[in-house]
Amino acid sequence: xxxxxxxxxxxxxxxxxxxxxxxxxxxxxxxxxxxxxxxxxxxxxxxxxxxxxxxxxxxxxxxxxxxxxxxxxxxxxxxxxxxxxxxxxxxxxxxxxxxxxxxxxxxxxxxxxxxxxxxxxxxxxxxxxxxxxxxxxxxxxxxxxxxxxxxxxxxxxxxxxxxxxxxxxxxxxxxxxxxxxxxxxxxxxxxxxxxxxxxxxxxxxxxxxxxxxxxxxxxxxxxxxxxxxxxxxxxxxxxxxxxxxxxxxxxxxxxxxxxxxxxxxxxxxxxxxxxxxxxxxxxxxxxxxxxxxxxxxxxxxxxxxxxxxxxxxxxxxxxxxxxxxxxxx
Length: 329
Known about the structure:
The protein is of the alpha+beta class. The protein has 2 domains: about 5-35 and about 135-325, Naphthalene 1,2-dioxygenase Alpha Subunit, Chain A, domain 1; about 45-115, Rieske Iron-sulfur Protein, CATH 2.102.10. It is built from 9 helices and 15 strands. It has helices spanning about 5-10, 20-30, 135, 140-145, 165-170, 175-180, 180-185, 270-295, 310-325, and strands at about 35-40, 50-55, 60-65, 70-75, 85, 90-95, 115-120, 120-125, 150-160, 195-200, 200-210, 220-225, 230-235, 240-250, 255-260. A 7-stranded antiparallel β-sheet has the order 9-15-14-13-12-11-10. Strands 1-8-7 form a 3-stranded antiparallel β-sheet, with no helix packed on it. A hairpin with a 5-residue loop joins strand 3 (about 60-65) and strand 4. The radius of gyration is 22 Å and the shape is globular. The two termini are about 20 Å apart.
C-alpha cells in the first residue's frame, strides 16, 4: 500500500542511525564540518592578543584577536611539543627543528578558518567556502535583542547518548508535563499555548509564563535550534539568554556547553537561581536521553512514530539530517 507524505513524516529515522559508526562518520563530514559553530563570548577576545580555545564541532580551534583588531582562530603554543605559532597562523619556532635538513616551517602553518559574530557571540566555520553566518541564523537576530547582554558563566555538557537523541529531546515539550514539573509550572506547555515554528531552517518554540505565576521581566520565552545543534534559550523573567552547541563525542556520546548571559542590571541572586533552575531541567533531560539511547542500542525495533502536532520540529530536524546525508529516511 502506498504511504502518504504525512505518514512518512510521522516515521522516525531508522534506529540504526543512532548507533552506527558509519552514519556518524558521514554526519561529521556532511553536517558538522561545514556548519557555523558558536565558539564563545566576544568579550573573551575583545583586546588585541586576547584569545580563547573552543570547538567547531569536533575540531579544536583558538579564537584570537590579532594586533590589528581582526578576529582569528589559532593555537599560540602546542602544549605537547611546544611548537609556537604567530597570530597569523605561521609556525615561528619548533624545538630541535634546526637538527633537520629538510624542515620547512612555511609548509606547517595552522589552517585558517572563517569567523564572524552575532552581537556578543563569536562563531567559527572550518569550511572556507561556507555561506555567511546570517544565512544560518535566519530570523534569530530579529527575535532577540542582544545589545545589553553580559556573559556570566559557562556550564559544560556531557551526555551518554547520540547527538541526535539529545537534539530531538530539546525540540519538543511533549515530555515536559511528565518530566519537567518545575518548568511546566513556570511555562504554559499546553499544546494550544505552546507554539512550534519552522522558519528558514530555524526550529523554534515559543511559550508564555503561566497565568498567576509571580515574577518580573518578560512573560514570554523562546527556545531555538540553529542547525545543526546550537541551542539558544530565553526564559521568562529578567533579561537573560543562554547559548551553546552540542556535538558528537562518539556514536553514543555527546558533548557541549551552555554560556549564560544576563542584562547588566539583573541581580546576582536572580542570575544564580535561573542557572540552577536550568541545570535541574538539564539533569532531568540527561536521564531521559540516556535511557532512550539504551533502548536504541537493543536493536529490537527498526524505527518509531512521531506525533506531528507535538513533534513537528523533530520531524523537520530528521528530514534535514536525512537530506544532508543524501539518504532516504
